[in-house]
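Researcher: Here's a chain I'd like modeled. Treat it as a single chain, no partners, no ligands.
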Amino acid sequence: MKKTIALLTLLTFTLTYCGQKKTEEDPNKALYNEVMDIHDEVMPGMEELFRLKKKLEQEISNSPDLVEGKKQELEQTILLLDSASKSMMVWMREFSPEDYEKEKQRDYLESELKRVNTVKDVMLEALEQGRKAAQD
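Model: Modeled as a single isolated chain. Structure tokens:
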């Protein structure tokens, strides 16, 4: 009987301790995963940004009689595509949650969640403008 009580006590202590440790780790891991999910969602768009840029550059170079207003519009769209691409590259280069201790990592990841959402918005806007310009 004493062995059973001791075993149950040990099992309860182990499950409680492991459960607390998991709970303590999960918020940062969940936030990290959220940041990475956004990155993973928009990262495939990098290839399309590049293709759209090349297409618009070719349109400008292959159309010497292009109306100046249209040419400026295409050049602005190319700049937007470049800016979106650079924003993703800068974010990826600077993203380093491992540089922060656990206590400060949450604040860092929260700020990175905002940054990666901004990158996402910039990329989606650039893709939309690029597609529109490439269709015209």
